[in-house]
Amino acid sequence: MTEDEKAIRRLVADWFEATKRGDLDAVLALMTDDVVFLVPGKPPMMGKPAFAEASRAQGAHGQPSFDGESTIQEISVHGNWAWMWSRLAVSITPPGGQAVLRSGHTLTILHKKGGRWLLARDANLLASA
Q: Which CATH architecture does the domain made up of 3-128 adopt?
């Protein structure tokens, strides 16, 4: 495994850990400023501010608990750009609510800036589990 592949896997692990802690600033530090998220049935979420706003809205009535697992299927590095596809399963439980389970595949494009890999584009095909 190359150093770039190891760094990308670390980014995924760091994302999960920061999300579990509810550390939005740490999650934002793992993405490019012009990040784009594509999810089924919704318009694209474009940029860090949109991600931060959606995250804050989700936690407006208390921080939900999060758990999940990402199984990276493939990583391909091409200079300062890389892509990976993964199998993702997540559980999000709002305070006092029932867990929402989603699973499916993701396709992610990463960009290496300042020696760090950052998430630049993410398309997920998560559906209710």
A: Roll (3.10)
